[in-house]
Every structure is written in C-alpha cells, then in structure tokens.
C-alpha cells in the first residue's frame, strides 16, 4: 500500500540550523514541500496562531485522538502533549505536496517505523555542524540559551551525533547555500 509521496525527516542537534535551512528550502519550493504542524495541549503564547505555529487542543481532545489511533507519534513533555496527527499528514498530501518533519533525533526513532507502517516512503537527513565549536557559537549567536541550557544542548549534541549513521543522508551545514543545495537535492532528485 505504498503511496506516491515521500515524507522527509530533517533532524540534527539543536542549533545546527534545521529551521534556517528549512526556511530557505520552503521559500523556493512552496508548491512541493510543506512542514508538518505539530499538535499540542500547551497553551498558546502571545502571537501564536492555531494551524500555523501549532494546532492547539485540549488534553481531552488530544487523548481522544491517541485512543482513535490518529496520532502518528506523541510525547508528554512537562505535562503537555506534543505530537503529529495523521490528519495533518493527509492534509499536506491532499495538496499534492511532500510532508516534511523537522524533529530532534529522539523524535526520529518513533517516526520512521510508524510512517512506513502507514505506507509512506521515508527519506531521512541528519544535519551536522561543521564542528562542536561552531555549534556552540551558533547556539550562543541565536541568543535563546543561558549558559546551563547551552551546555546541556552541547552535551546532547555529542550523543545525538552518534546516531547520524542511522539516517539516509548526512549533510554538513557549513556554508548555508551549500547545505540548502544538498538538502534540496535529496528532496527533489526524484521528481
Ligand atoms: P535549529 O533549528 O537546528 O535549532 P537554527 O535554524 O535555529 O537551528 O539555527 C541556529 C543558529 O545558527 C541561528 O542563529 C542561525 O542563524 C545560525 N545558522 C544556521 N545555519 C547557519 C550556517 N550555515 N552558517 C552560520 N550560521 C548558521
């Protein structure tokens, strides 16, 4: 029951540049790929829009979807559910586009087998930093971390890097346009 769409999973350590690379790809290929919007039970922050940043559901609504088998994968983080629904996947495919997941490496482990079980082709990319020092300076430059969380992210990154061989492609995010071209080649080679 394989269908004609490929689901892309773009992963890699926090701060490696997943969002940055994706923004470039999306702006060039908006008709061919679309990012999966995560569903969550956490409260919206100011400015967050339902359907754009997240789908915001109540805990009861989310749990009904779990029971109905409508969540492809989910996790409970600090008391809030986060996950992706089969409805979201089908919405993107119904527009004739290939769905893209941007997830941390822990997310990938559950996602790939579950997508394959549902008949999707899956193609996985691990984005790597040129070096740990460069990762550190990107995290610092982004200005979103205090020293403790920066050190935790770097320690996680060292462990996550060991998983790179489980991915179909390993791409170093050195100069942004090189990385964008390589990730684009993976996504658009077949069609
Ligand atoms: P992620 O989504 O993987 O956590 P981001 O896309 O937020 O990472 O990028 C982290 C920081 O690194 C951002 O400040 C971004 O501008 C910077 N960055 C991303 N790609 C590159 C690159 N190729 N060269 C230099 N800086 C980059």
Structure description:
The radius of gyration is 17 Å and the shape is globular. The longest helix has 15 residues, at 147-161. It contains 7 helices and 9 strands, in the order E-H-E-E-E-H-E-E-H-E-H-E-H-H-E-H. The chain is 42% helix and 23% strand. A hairpin with a 2-residue loop joins strand 5 and strand 6 (80-85). The strands form 2 sheets. Strands 2-7-1-8-9 form a 5-stranded parallel β-sheet, sandwiched between helices. With 191 residues, it is an alpha/beta fold. It folds into 2 domains: 1-32 and 98-191, P-loop containing nucleotide triphosphate hydrolases (Rossmann fold, 3-Layer(aba) Sandwich), CATH 3.40.50; 36-96, Guanylate Kinase phosphate binding domain.
Low confidence ranges: none
**CATH fold descriptor of the largest domain:** Rossmann fold
CA radius of gyration is 17 Å
Count of spatially separate domains: 2
**Count of distinct strands:** 9
Bound small molecules, deduplicated: adenosine-5'-diphosphate
Number of contiguous helices: 7
Helix-strand category: alpha/beta
In percent terms, what proportion of residues is strand? Answer: 15-25%
Name the CATH superfamily assignment of the largest domain. P-loop containing nucleotide triphosphate hydrolases
Mean pLDDT: 94
**Shape type:** globular
Which helices and strands appear, and what pairs or packs with what?
Blueprint: E1 6-11, H1 18-28, E2 33-35, E3 39-40, E4 55-56, H2 59-67, E5 71-77, E6 80-85, H3 86-94, E7 98-102, H4 105-117, E8 121-128, H5 132-142, H6 147-161, E9 169-172, H7 176-188
Parallel strand pairs: 1-7, 1-8, 2-7, 3-4, 8-9
Antiparallel strand pairs: 3-6, 5-6
Helix pairs in contact: 1-7, 5-6
This protein binds adenosine-5'-diphosphate.
